[in-house]
């Protein structure tokens, strides 16, 4: 892969419902993708089953954001979140490699012969653990998440601990939405590798209000833009 300066930039939305406040989240996700940030999402389902509109919105957001979508019950969020994190890193790398291959040989990964494609996919899977990552979690803390929030918090802490086993540097930030006092969002934790700092931010979160998913995506974009990545967070 051609050398380039930068890091993999990702956001993953955790939500149990459809956005109902602020900018359209599909439009916000498209802006993020255009800026080089991949947007993925996990939809929390329950026994009451969410409507088709909720599921369609999650899929529309991730399609516009160039990411992946998945769904799970709250008790399965921990495993789903960890698997999704690995998949989204590999997915982003595959898009980068495919684009570079097309510019060099006129073919992307999907158009290569199976044996060559398998070798490239294997390289991406191995490299995915070593690439550095700026990662924002967007946690829906709307009223409907009240009985799911404690489990979601624990899953995010477990993810942070798991990410420490990666060979690459991972800096994680957390945005909750909605925020307090009528604000659309709350930056619960800026980019960090410290689990205790993340825990402090999570402990302050409470379920309330509506679901401003679009503004949360915009806030995550701004957080990434404002972050001045040091040399230690560069990949080749």
Automatic annotation (TrEMBL):
<feature type="domain" description="VWFA">
    <location>
        <begin position="134"/>
        <end position="236"/>
    </location>
</feature>
<feature type="domain" description="VWFA">
    <location>
        <begin position="1"/>
        <end position="88"/>
    </location>
</feature>
<dbReference type="Pfam" id="PF00092">
    <property type="entry name" value="VWA"/>
</dbReference>
<dbReference type="Pfam" id="PF13519">
    <property type="entry name" value="VWA_2"/>
</dbReference>
<protein>
    <submittedName>
        <fullName>Ca-activated chloride channel family protein</fullName>
    </submittedName>
</protein>
<dbReference type="InterPro" id="IPR002035">
    <property type="entry name" value="VWF_A"/>
</dbReference>
<dbReference type="InterPro" id="IPR036465">
    <property type="entry name" value="vWFA_dom_sf"/>
</dbReference>
